[in-house]
Write a structure and sequence with these properties.
This protein is an all-beta fold. The protein contains no helices and eleven strands. About 0% of the residues lie in helices and about 50% in strands.
Amino acid sequence: VQLVESGGGSVQAGGSLRLSCIASVFTYSRYCMGWFRQAPGKEREAVAAIYSVLSATYYADSVKGRFTISQDNAKNTFYLQMNSLKPEDAAMYYCAAGGPAPYGGRWPSELLYPYWGQGTQVTVS
Protein backbone atom coordinates (compact mmCIF):
# COMPACT_ATOMS: atom_id res chain seq x y z
CA VAL A 1 0.00 0.00 0.00
CA GLN A 2 1.40 3.35 -0.99
CA LEU A 3 0.08 6.61 0.43
CA VAL A 4 0.67 9.88 -1.35
CA GLU A 5 -0.04 13.20 0.31
CA SER A 6 -0.61 16.53 -1.35
CA GLY A 7 -1.92 19.95 -0.51
CA GLY A 8 0.76 21.31 1.75
CA GLY A 9 2.17 24.77 1.24
CA SER A 10 2.76 28.14 2.75
CA VAL A 11 -0.07 30.32 4.03
CA GLN A 12 -0.54 33.30 6.25
CA ALA A 13 -2.02 32.94 9.68
CA GLY A 14 -5.78 32.64 9.42
CA GLY A 15 -5.60 30.95 6.06
CA SER A 16 -6.69 27.50 4.98
CA LEU A 17 -5.24 24.43 3.36
CA ARG A 18 -6.66 21.05 2.46
CA LEU A 19 -4.39 18.05 2.63
CA SER A 20 -5.20 14.93 0.65
CA CYS A 21 -3.95 11.40 1.03
CA ILE A 22 -4.60 8.82 -1.65
CA ALA A 23 -3.85 5.15 -1.33
CA SER A 24 -2.78 2.92 -4.16
CA VAL A 25 -4.94 0.05 -3.04
CA PHE A 26 -6.85 0.10 0.20
CA THR A 27 -10.20 -0.49 1.79
CA TYR A 28 -10.53 2.58 3.91
CA SER A 29 -13.78 1.86 5.62
CA ARG A 30 -12.48 -1.05 7.67
CA TYR A 31 -9.61 0.78 9.28
CA CYS A 32 -8.74 3.90 11.13
CA MET A 33 -7.07 6.65 9.10
CA GLY A 34 -5.11 9.42 10.67
CA TRP A 35 -3.15 12.59 10.22
CA PHE A 36 -0.05 13.28 12.26
CA ARG A 37 2.39 16.15 12.30
CA GLN A 38 5.91 16.81 13.41
CA ALA A 39 7.46 20.19 13.92
CA PRO A 40 11.25 20.66 14.12
CA GLY A 41 12.58 19.58 17.48
CA LYS A 42 9.28 18.09 18.56
CA GLU A 43 7.82 14.63 18.66
CA ARG A 44 5.27 13.53 16.12
CA GLU A 45 1.76 14.07 17.37
CA ALA A 46 -1.69 12.92 16.33
CA VAL A 47 -3.80 15.61 14.76
CA ALA A 48 -6.97 13.83 13.65
CA ALA A 49 -8.31 10.39 12.90
CA ILE A 50 -11.39 8.88 11.36
CA TYR A 51 -13.11 5.51 11.60
CA SER A 52 -15.88 5.61 9.08
CA VAL A 53 -17.57 2.36 10.15
CA LEU A 54 -18.77 4.19 13.24
CA SER A 55 -18.71 7.66 11.71
CA ALA A 56 -16.27 8.49 14.47
CA THR A 57 -13.59 11.14 14.44
CA TYR A 58 -10.83 12.25 16.75
CA TYR A 59 -9.18 15.66 16.98
CA ALA A 60 -6.34 16.90 19.07
CA ASP A 61 -7.48 19.64 21.40
CA SER A 62 -5.22 22.10 19.62
CA VAL A 63 -7.10 21.73 16.32
CA LYS A 64 -10.69 21.16 17.43
CA GLY A 65 -13.07 23.48 15.66
CA ARG A 66 -10.49 24.39 13.02
CA PHE A 67 -9.58 21.13 11.31
CA THR A 68 -11.89 18.57 9.73
CA ILE A 69 -10.99 15.05 8.67
CA SER A 70 -13.02 13.27 6.04
CA GLN A 71 -12.71 10.46 3.57
CA ASP A 72 -14.04 9.43 0.20
CA ASN A 73 -13.94 5.66 -0.04
CA ALA A 74 -14.83 5.66 -3.72
CA LYS A 75 -11.68 7.66 -4.41
CA ASN A 76 -9.46 5.89 -1.87
CA THR A 77 -8.71 9.31 -0.52
CA PHE A 78 -8.96 11.02 2.83
CA TYR A 79 -8.55 14.67 3.64
CA LEU A 80 -7.64 17.14 6.31
CA GLN A 81 -9.27 20.52 5.91
CA MET A 82 -7.35 23.05 7.95
CA ASN A 83 -8.90 26.44 8.63
CA SER A 84 -7.81 29.37 10.76
CA LEU A 85 -4.24 28.19 10.61
CA LYS A 86 -1.84 29.39 13.27
CA PRO A 87 1.95 29.58 13.23
CA GLU A 88 2.02 26.71 15.71
CA ASP A 89 0.33 24.49 13.10
CA ALA A 90 3.45 24.63 10.94
CA ALA A 91 4.92 21.15 10.62
CA MET A 92 5.43 18.21 8.36
CA TYR A 93 2.09 16.47 8.07
CA TYR A 94 1.83 12.74 7.54
CA CYS A 95 -1.13 10.59 6.68
CA ALA A 96 -1.38 7.11 8.04
CA ALA A 97 -3.65 4.20 7.19
CA GLY A 98 -4.54 0.80 8.45
CA GLY A 99 -4.94 1.56 12.10
CA PRO A 100 -7.18 -0.63 14.25
CA ALA A 101 -10.60 0.56 15.29
CA PRO A 102 -10.77 2.82 18.32
CA TYR A 103 -11.69 0.97 21.47
CA GLY A 104 -12.97 2.17 24.77
CA GLY A 105 -12.67 5.74 23.65
CA ARG A 106 -9.01 5.31 22.87
CA TRP A 107 -7.70 5.94 19.40
CA PRO A 108 -4.73 4.03 18.02
CA SER A 109 -1.29 5.46 18.53
CA GLU A 110 1.03 6.06 15.62
CA LEU A 111 2.76 2.78 16.38
CA LEU A 112 -0.33 0.88 15.26
CA TYR A 113 -0.52 2.39 11.78
CA PRO A 114 1.33 0.19 9.28
CA TYR A 115 1.15 2.51 6.29
CA TRP A 116 2.48 6.05 6.05
CA GLY A 117 2.80 8.77 3.50
CA GLN A 118 6.00 10.65 2.79
CA GLY A 119 4.82 13.85 4.40
CA THR A 120 3.79 17.25 3.15
CA GLN A 121 5.10 20.50 4.58
CA VAL A 122 2.78 23.13 6.00
CA THR A 123 4.22 26.57 6.71
CA VAL A 124 2.23 29.29 8.45
CA SER A 125 3.61 32.80 8.73
